[in-house]
Structure formats: C-alpha cells, structure tokens
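TA notes, week 10

Several of you asked for a full example with nothing omitted. So below is the full record: structure tokens for the whole chain, then the designed sequence directly under it. When grading your own attempts, check the secondary structure regions first.
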C-alpha cells in the first residue's frame, strides 16, 4: 500500500516530535532518601527560606521519586513522543565523583527510562538542571575550573549506564540561569552574589563542562549508541525599544544568546567579539590589569567549538532594549539590564503579564527568535526544549495556557514554512505543576494540576492537557484533521 500525505500549512512536518519536560529538583522530592546527598538547591532552600515564596522547599515536591509510574501514565495519556526529565547528580553520585555510584539512583532512573520506552516514549535526559552536589559547591562549584572535569566524569557515568536506551541528551539546562541570574542576583542557588565576576567565571566553566561531556559522548559512545547531544539555552527575544535602539538590542542579544551560543555554534568559536571587547574596556575602567571575562585559550576555543548535534532552545518571553541614560541605575542582568553593556530592559504595554513577574506574552517573538538564531548560527536543527505558560491560579480550564500554546505553535509553523528554520520538535514546560524555584508553588506551569496539599500529590489534567494531546494526535493545528497514529 502506498500512502500519500499532503501536508497543509497548519500541519507539522513528518518526523516533528512533541514532548513535555520536568526537572529532578522540581518534581522528585525524596531529597535525603536512598543515599542521596544534598544538592545546592537543598542547601539553598534550607539556608535561605525567606528567598522562596511561602518558604517552600522541594523536599517532597511532586513526589515523583515514588510516583514515577503515574508520571509515565500522564506522558502516555498525552501521546508524547518524548519525555524530558533530568538526573539528579547527587542522587546518582552522592559524593559528586564517579567512584561511588548509588544503586538506588541507578534503579530509579532505570525504572523511569524502561517504563517510558515500554510506552514508546523516548527519554530525553538533561544531565544538569541547577542541582549541583553540595560537596562540589564546597570546592567552589561552577566557579572552580575543575567543575568541567567533575561534570564530564558524571556525564560519562550517565552515558554508560543509560546510553543504550537514551538517544537524546542535554548536558546543561540554561547556564544563563545558574550563572547570570544566580551570581548577579542571588535568587538562585548557591545564593552567592558576585555581579560581573562570578557570572562570567561560571559561564566559561559551563561551556567547558558541556564541551568535555560532548567530546566524551563523541569518542566513547556515539559509535555504539548513535544518540544526539546538545545544550539547552534560555533566550529571551530582545527587541529594540525604538528604531534608534537596534545597536543596543544587538549587543544585548550577544550578551544573552551569544555568551552561550557563540563558543559552541559558530565557526570562529570563543566569546562574541563585541562583548569580549566591551568587558575588557570596562575592566580597565575598574582598574583591573585583566578582563573580568576569563579569556579562552586557542585550545579551549577548539575544544568547545562544534560540540552540538542540534540546538536546544528554551523560549518563554521577550524584552525591549534601550541604552541606559548616563548615571541611570541598572538592575541585575538578565532580569533588568546590564551595567557591563549599559542597557536597560523593558516590556511593551501590549504584552500581557502572566502569573509570574518576569513573564510577558509576545508570541510573534518566537518566530523572530528562531529566525535570528538561523541567521546568526546557520542552518542547524533546533529542538524547542522548553516553552510554556505560567499562571498563579488553580484554573482547571486554563484558557490562557491553551491560547499560549496555540499562538506559539503557530509561530513555530511560520518559522518552519516561511523562514525555513529547521525546528525538529517542541517541548512543553511543564508536564505538571512543580517547585518553581524562588516562586515555590505559587506559580504553575503544568498541563496537569498537582494537589500539593494532598499526601498523594494527585495529578489532574487541565484543558491544556487535552489541547496538547489533540495537537499531537492530529500532528497539526488544524482541528479538522483526522486523528492519526503515532508517526
Ligand atoms: C526555566 N527568569 O527557568 C527552567 O528551565 C525551568 O526549570 C523553569 O521551571 C522554567 O523555565 C519556568 O520558569 C527559568 O527568571 C527560570 O527569567 C527563571 C527565569 C527564566 C527561566
């Protein structure tokens, strides 16, 4: 039999994959169970309860450590092609190093992976989603250059234990969050504030960590397992406030996207030249005989360059950019502005705010972002590793979230069909409500509501779950399309 498929403009390309995501600290709970040691998030929430809304913790979270079978059921109900979750480094390697692999950690992730595969759901595994073992933080964490090797050793353990079944790997989730937001504002673990210094040291070490893990996969595992490895960067779309601010906006894009993409995805590698130059000048003005931005050696440039099989993109929101006025106070990057490049970020009044402080809705920005990435880094495959919408209410009929998915998926289709961007797939953040970092449980991203008052952590589907399931089934935004079987 031959089957002819005519794709309409509201259909997704054949082979386009749909998934949903969570991360270990945000859902697992069981923070001190089965030999798991503390991560920097365990320490952070226990040391600075006042930095988290309602003094919340991830001690129990969604209890996915015990309820993983239910999570797989939800993923299966939705018809997901893949489920993105992360491994807790301190659950798998309680002392942070590879000489003590936890039997309990191995069992937990093996169970989850096998259960997903049984339902024909591909596991997409993030190795690092903000939860460094505290034992390594005690040696300086992401500011110690040795962290690149610590991470690489951990990655090798994960590849060798799970690589036979896991074909998609993300090394690091959003280094901008655990470097820039963390060290510039202190609102993320480890809570240490060192603006303009700690963030850059962390940034460079994160790039090397990613690259070393990628090289290990390439040398030791690729020929056997044939998987794909990349990094997931969070990038706000940054738009010139007025026509006169285009240069400021491009500088800001290089600071937000470029610092985490240029070293990996360009032919030249290394830092974005414009940023490297500006920070060197600023450092001189600060009276330093060297730049606060640690330079790459030639060897390091080569090590990091080209370490991707696709690009992971977490996309949520947008900001306007303008030059700061002389003497104007500038808040922490990337939340408010940057005193290194002298820009101020803002929002337009027509962008509706969601249930969370940093999040304003501007769907057209998604297409602009994808087109900019293609222009900047070439015709590479992009996997949307996160996109989703926050609310602070308990609506089961979450119309705003449904609209957000629809509007953003429309922009993905335009990027594919009109701009020729090679988008491979799309991931909803999040499968279910979970511990939303400094917002605790006050902010909800889930397609499934989780009842955090019940010991059972009951999961209930919202309208967005039904909507997403139907998009996946139809492989289309066209509601008149016939429901088709999993491709
Ligand atoms: C991402 N900000 O984090 C993370 O990958 C998820 O763990 C998180 O739950 C999700 O987005 C929703 O927030 C972010 O302050 C954390 O701009 C903070 C910011 C953005 C993304």
């Amino acid at each position: 039999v031959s089957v002819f498929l005519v794709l309409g403009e509201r259909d997704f390309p054949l082979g386009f994959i749909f998934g949903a995501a969570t991360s270990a600290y945000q859902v697992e709970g069981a923070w001190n169970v089965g030999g798991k040691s503390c991560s920097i998030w365990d320490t952070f929430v226990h040391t600075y309860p006042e930095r988290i809304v309602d003094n919340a913790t991830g001690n129990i979270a969604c209890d996915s450590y015990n309820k993983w079978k239910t999570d797989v059921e939800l993923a299966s109900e939705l018809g997901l092609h893949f489920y993105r979750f992360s491994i807790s480094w301190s659950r798998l390697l309680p002392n942070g190093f590879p000489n003590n692999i936890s039997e309990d950690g191995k069992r937990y992730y093996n169970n989850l992976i096998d259960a997903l595969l049984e339902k024909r759901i591909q596991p997409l595994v993030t190795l690092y989603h903000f939860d460094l073992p505290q034992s390594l933080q005690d040696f300086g964490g992401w500011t110690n250059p040795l962290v690149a090797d610590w991470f690489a050793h951990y990655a090798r353990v994960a590849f060798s234990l799970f690589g036979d079944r896991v074909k998609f790997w993300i090394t690091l989730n959003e280094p901008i969050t655990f470097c820039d937001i963390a060290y510039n504002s202190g609102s993320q673990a480890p809570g240490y504030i060192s603006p303009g210094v700690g963030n850059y040291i962390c940034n460079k070490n994160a790039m090397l960590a990613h690259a070393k893990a990628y090289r290990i996969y390439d040398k030791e595992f690729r020929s056997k397992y044939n998987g794909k490895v990349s990094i997931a960067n969070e990038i706000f779309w940054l738009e010139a406030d007025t026509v006169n601010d285009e240069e400021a906006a491009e500088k800001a894009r290089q600071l937000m996207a470029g610092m985490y993409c240029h070293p990996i995805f360009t032919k030249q590698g290394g830092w974005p030249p414009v940023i490297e130059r500006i920070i060197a000048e600023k450092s001189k003005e600060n009276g330093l005989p060297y730049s606060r931005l640690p330079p790459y050696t030639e060897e390091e440039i080569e090590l990091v360059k080209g370490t991707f099989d696709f690009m992971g993109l977490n996309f949520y929101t947008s900001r306007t950019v303008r030059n700061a006025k002389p003497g104007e106070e500038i808040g922490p990057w990337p939340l408010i502005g940057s005193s290194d490049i002298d820009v101020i970020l803002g929002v337009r009044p027509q962008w509706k705010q969601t249930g969370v402080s940093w999040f304003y809705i501007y769907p057209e920005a998604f297409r602009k972002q994808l087109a900019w990435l293609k222009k900047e880094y070439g015709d590479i495959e992009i996997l949307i590793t996160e996109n989703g919408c926050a609310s602070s209410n308990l609506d089961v009929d979450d119309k705003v979230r449904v609209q957000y998915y629809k509007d953003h998926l429309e922009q993905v289709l335009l990027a594919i069909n009109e701009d020729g961007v090679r988008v491979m797939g799309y991931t909803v953040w999040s499968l279910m409500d979970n511990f939303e970092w400094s917002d605790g449980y006050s902010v909800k991203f889930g397609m499934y509501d989780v009842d955090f008052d019940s010991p059972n952590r009951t999961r209930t589907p919202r309208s967005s779950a039904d909507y997403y399931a139907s998009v996946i089934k139809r492989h289309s935004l066209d509601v008149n399309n016939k429901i088709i079987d999993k491709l």
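Residues 23, 26, 173-174, 177, 181, 234, 314, 358, 386, 429, 436-437, 445 surround 4-nitrophenyl beta-D-glucopyranoside (CB under 6 Å). Use that as a sanity check on your answer.
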